Amino acid sequence: MAFAHPFDILDAFLCLTGVGILLGMVRQITGNIAACIGLHAGWVAVIYVVRETSERNAHGPALWLLSDYDGFIGWMVLAWIVVLGFVLARIYKTGTVPVL
């Protein structure tokens, strides 16, 4: 039913689109999918940990940063994805990729 009101889930849609673009960028730059798998697994782990260890404040001043879609992604995560995109692009551009 959420698709009947697309502006209610616009933040989640843009956030998930940003994740797809970022993972595609990493795949294009690195030439393999391993880094994408690692990034995605890390994000999913963070989402599960945050959901289990925190409580959403329905009356908080920053509630608009979280999406009603799943209570986690939203404008705040979209901003973080943009920052990560610039940082990863700069790291891969300079060739100083950290190797573990």
Describe the structure in your own words.
The protein is mainly α and 100 residues long. It has one domain (11-54, 65-94). The protein has three helices and no strands. It has helices spanning 10-30, 34-53, 75-94. The mean pLDDT is 83.
Throw out a few tags for this protein.
single chain; 100 residues; 3 helices
Set out the fold topology.
Elements: H1 10-30, H2 34-53, H3 75-94
Helix pairs in contact: 1-2, 1-3
When the domains are counted, the total is 1
SSE string, helices as H and strands as E? HHH
What is the helix tally? 3
Q: Which band does the percent of strand residues land in?
A: under 5%
Brief summary:
By secondary structure, the chain is mainly α.
